[in-house]
């Protein structure tokens, strides 16, 4: 809703328009508060188009309520008149109807009683056979639709039960199978493997540098420097390097086996809690469906 600008204060027509809009908004707020009662009114954009739409809606709602009240009063008055007519029914009419019924043969009386009961059970205001037939077909259709919906609810309930059982079985497997349990010494093993890997990498770099220096000295010194002891040293160094490389590969393979696991036990327990929450949600969904079916 727009506010008054300084120029509008000196314009009587604009000031009157703003007062009228303020009154309309006050009426709309009161009308919405009466309909929402203890609930909060949803937020909406306040402009001229919204105001016009809400005023039209309020007028239509008020008109509908008035028409509903008129119909209700007419139905009550008609019911009172019918009750009065039934109470004021002449005794002669009752005697004639009773005599007429007694004069009918037994099969006719049975048919009349059956027809009247069918009219009452089918909630029809007439005993016409065509009206009773239409009402019976409608009742049969409604009963068939309800049976189909009930069968669908039973099927849905069975599927939820099956999913709940599968989820519970998966949860039990996670809790009991060893591969889902984090070893208690995992942090220690990880730290030890990491330390050994760093140590072996440093030794590998050291031996590689020594081998390169030895090869360089052999090249500089010529064939006389390259003695049997130097060759044996080179062979030993190569063997040590290969051994260290194999140890590094072995340690890296062992670390790879623990790569998918978290660093602590709490993260593994979190997965179990997630599955347990799924079980709780499925169980609540099943109970809600059962309550709706029973209700």
From TrEMBL:
It is found in: Cytoplasm, Cytoskeleton, Spindle. InterPro entries: HAUS1. The keyword Cytoplasm applies. Its main location: cytoplasm. Keywords: Cell cycle, Cell division, Coiled coil, Cytoplasm, Cytoskeleton, Microtubule, Mitosis. One of its GO terms (biological process) is cell division. Residues 47-77, 234-292 form a coiled coil. It holds the Pfam family HAUS1. GO terms for cellular component: cytosol; HAUS complex; microtubule; spindle. Belongs to the HAUS1 family. This is HAUS augmin-like complex subunit 1. It comes from Pseudovirgaria hyperparasitica.
């Amino acid at each position: 809703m727009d506010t008054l600008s300084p120029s509008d204060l000196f314009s009587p027509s604009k000031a009157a328009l703003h007062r009228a809009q303020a009154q309309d908004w006050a009426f709309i707020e009161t009308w919405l508060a009466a309909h929402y009662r203890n609930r909060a009114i949803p937020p909406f954009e306040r402009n001229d188009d919204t105001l016009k739409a809400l005023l039209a809606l309020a007028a239509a709602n008020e008109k509908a309520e008035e028409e509903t009240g008129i119909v209700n009063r007419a139905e009550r008055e008609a019911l009172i008149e019918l009750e009065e007519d039934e109470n004021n029914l002449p005794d002669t009419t009752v005697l004639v109807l009773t005599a007429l019924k007694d004069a009918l043969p037994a099969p006719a009386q049975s048919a009349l009683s059956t027809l009247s009961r069918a009219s009452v059970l089918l909630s029809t205001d007439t005993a016409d056979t065509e009206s009773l037939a239409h009402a019976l077909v409608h009742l049969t259709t409604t009963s068939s639709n309800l049976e189909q919906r009930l069968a669908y609810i039973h099927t849905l309930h069975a599927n939820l039960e099956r999913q709940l059982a599968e989820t519970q079985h998966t949860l039990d497997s996670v809790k009991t199978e060893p591969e889902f349990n984090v070893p208690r010494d995992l942090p220690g093993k990880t730290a030890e493997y990491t330390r050994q890997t760093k140590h072996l990498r440093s030794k590998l770099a050291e031996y590689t540098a020594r081998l390169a220096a030895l090869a360089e000295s052999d090249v500089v010194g010529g064939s006389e420097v390259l003695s049997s002891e130097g060759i044996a040293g080179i062979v030993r160094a190569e063997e040590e390097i290969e051994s260290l490389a194999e140890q590094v590969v072995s340690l890296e393979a062992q670390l790879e086996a623990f790569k998918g696991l978290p660093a602590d036990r709490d993260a593994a327990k979190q997965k179990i809690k997630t599955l347990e929450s799924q079980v709780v949600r499925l169980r609540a969904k099943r109970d809600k469906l059962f309550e709706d079916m029973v209700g």
